[in-house]
């Protein structure tokens, strides 16, 4: 059984494409193209299920058309509409150095070198030019820039991250939270 803590979300299957079972896949991480893995994990009725990829092709820089094995018609593909897609963390770690997406870090426990424990990353807000980690800080939302130069230490096995944030950044965030 695949556990939620063993995967991370990389996108959403949106709608069938054509009549042969292809489905549009809107992705936030192209790790499936960079790492040797022949399946994607779909969240169906609350259960994480692997589906083997027969083939895929890119439609744009954020959409691929995916054909899963044994899905051979638009009717079969329709049941995948608006289904979340996940990727195994263990395989994502095999990605070439520097090619992990920020979404890989969802679920990591974060601390700052000076301020200590900040909380758990619940999502990545990439709606602006600068991506932000959304951290659950004792029930309150803390936004921290997702920047490589702020990461002081990373432990993928324990899913922890230590940041060295610039002076004043956390003071500003904490003042807004009070």
Number of helices: 4
As a percent range, the share of helical residues equals 10-25%
In spatial order, strands of the major sheet run 1-2-5-4-3-6
Structural class determined from secondary elements: mainly beta
CATH superfamily of the largest domain: RimM
Q: Any idea what the CATH architecture of the largest domain is?
A: Beta Barrel
Structure in words:
By secondary structure, the protein is mostly beta strands. It has 2 domains: 4-92, Beta Barrel (Elongation Factor Tu (Ef-tu), domain 3), CATH 2.40.30; 105-177, PRC-barrel domain (SH3 type barrels, Roll), CATH 2.30.30. Helices cover 12% and strands 46% of the residues. The chain is built from 4 helices and 12 strands, in the order ββαβββαβαββββββα. Strands 1-2-5-4-3-6 form a 6-stranded antiparallel beta barrel. Strands 10-9-8-7-12-11 form a 6-stranded mixed β-sheet. A hairpin with a 2-residue loop joins strand 3 (39-44) and strand 4. The longest helix has 9 residues, at 169-177. The chain starts with 6 loop residues before the first strand and ends with a helix.
Outline the fold blueprint:
Layout: E1 7-17, E2 22-27, H1 31-34, E3 39-44, E4 47-58, E5 63-68, H2 74-78, E6 83-88, H3 89-92, E7 109-112, E8 116-125, E9 132-137, E10 140-145, E11 151-155, E12 160-163, H4 169-177
Parallel strand pairs: 7-12
Antiparallel strand pairs: 1-2, 1-6, 2-5, 3-4, 3-6, 4-5, 7-8, 8-9, 9-10, 11-12
């Amino acid at each position: 059984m695949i556990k939620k803590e063993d995967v991370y979300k990389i996108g959403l299957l949106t709608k069938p494409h054509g009549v042969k079972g292809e489905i549009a896949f809107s992705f936030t991480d192209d790790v499936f193209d960079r790492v040797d893995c022949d399946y994607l994990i779909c969240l169906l009725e609350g259960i994480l299920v692997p589906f083997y990829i027969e083939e895929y092709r890119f439609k744009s820089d954020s959409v691929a058309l995916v054909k899963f094995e044994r899905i051979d018609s638009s009717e079969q593909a329709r049941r995948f509409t608006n289904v979340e897609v996940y990727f195994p963390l263990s395989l994502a770690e095999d990605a070439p150095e520097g090619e992990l997406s920020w979404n890989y870090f969802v679920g990591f426990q974060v601390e700052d070198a000076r301020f200590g424990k900040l909380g758990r990353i619940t999502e990545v807000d990439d709606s602006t030019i600068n991506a932000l980690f959304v951290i659950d800080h004792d029930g309150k939302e803390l936004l921290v820039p997702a920047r490589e130069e702020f990461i002081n230490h990373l432990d993928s096995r324990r899913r922890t991250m230590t940041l060295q944030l610039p002076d004043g950044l956390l003071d500003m965030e904490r003042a807004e939270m009070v």
